[in-house]
Write a structure and sequence with these properties.
Blueprint lengths: L3 E4 L5 E5 L4 H13 L1 E7 L5 H12 L3 E5 L2 E7 L11 E2 L4 H12 L4 E5 L10 H9 L3 E5 L3 E7 L8 E3 L5 H11 L5 E6 L6 H8 L4 E5 L5 E6 L8 E3 L4 H13 L4 E8 L6 H8 L3 E10 L2 E9 L7 E2 L11 H10 L1 E6 L12 H11 L3 E5 L2 E7 L8 E2 L5 H11 L6 E3 L12 H8 L2 E4 L1
Helix pairs in contact: 1-2, 1-3, 1-6, 2-3, 3-4, 3-5, 4-5, 7-9, 7-11, 9-10, 9-11
The structure holds shikimate-3-phosphate (S3P).
Shikimate-3-phosphate binds next to helix 5.
Amino acid sequence: MTSILSHSAAALTGTITVPGDKSISHRALMIGALAVGETTISCLLEGEDVLATAAAVQQLGAGIEQQDNIWRVYGRGIGGLIEPSSVLDLGNSGTAARLLMGVLSSHELSATLTGDDSLSSRPMERVMAPLREIGAEFVARTGGKLPITITGTGTALPGDETLKVASAQVKSAILLAGLNAQGNTIVIEPQPSRDHTEKMLNFFGADISVEKMTDGARKITLIGQPEITGQKIEVPGDISSAAFPLVAALITLGSDLTIENVGINLLRVGVLESLRDMGAKIDILNKRNTAGEPMADIHVRASNLTGATIPASRAPSMIDEYPILAIAAACAEGTSVFEGVSELRVKESDRLAAMAFGLKDCGVDTETTGDTLTIHGTGSAPKGGVTISSRLDHRIAMSYLVLGMVSQEPVTVDDGGPIETSFPGFIQLMNGIGAKMDEC
Ligand code: S3P
């Protein structure tokens, strides 16, 4: 375990890029493995989560080569993956585990999936239930937890599911299973979630359509067994990673920072809307498209933030950004209320508890009532001066290191290791623009 100490920082200035989008990176490898021919990926996130997916698709028979920052995937075609000879270890990655469960459901093979202590405590029944409907079988640990052995079927039925949880992972698992089902797979999501799978399947040539319903729901229809062929993909920077330097710049006096090439998928930008509601000065520049995804440069300046109420309806579009938004709220003037955030309890850690207790320890008054988190911002430098447990959760570790940048006393995070899952080079990048973080 390497603990990291974050001291009070100078103004953050400069122009940076952040590592590739984690969600898009996983999907590029998996869909590339199911396509016919070669897929070339640049700017793939080379974090532990995505490397676990790369290793898994290799164990399933896809060819993977890496040269400098270009990754090549030699796909086996839809339904063409082979039974792995050993366990698939997905480390800390919920996306890798759940999406692969979808892929494997419609292959005639058996595979056992495992992960670290954090992943092995996360709920998998939400994915297994719809996949059983199409013919897959599962043997799971008590409570539907990993390790899980899945036996897929070569004659999968097409899924027809209305999602019970707003989850892009569940939606994507059903759609990926539907690639090798005969007929139309239909997923209705009452609350829209990130649509990277839909966009990427379309980019690879699958026949997939999205209908917006009058009540705001989305109905996605995928025609089974399409011909998908290898593509060239440039992965945009991850807005979930960009959110850390972005909030750091907002709360550090005199900062003026540009983050280039960030993915701004409409179903991911809730954090920008929420920060603007709090008075953040954020400009989106140079909008363009890459592999069917929108991308832009984000310019941010230090701002006097005020508390805001973030409605539950926005949760799916910023689900991973609540920890760092909580840091912004802790430094803002007045009270912020995050409504409808119960899903935070089943992320890499119980993020609701991690933010409520950790902020209290740092001298910020917080309350949780049901699925609402209330933060009474200090409007000035919080006390800090404590050691926070990262709970095997990269975003908890990075959030508290950002808080240390504006606290009266340094903040220590007990284990910086989990940061490698999504943001390799985080400490160096932050120190390069004005942070003072030391490994100790
Ligand atoms: C992801 C979906 C979200 C998010 C996760 C990545 C994805 O999870 O929290 O980090 O790539 O589909 P849920 O689907 O559980 O909300």
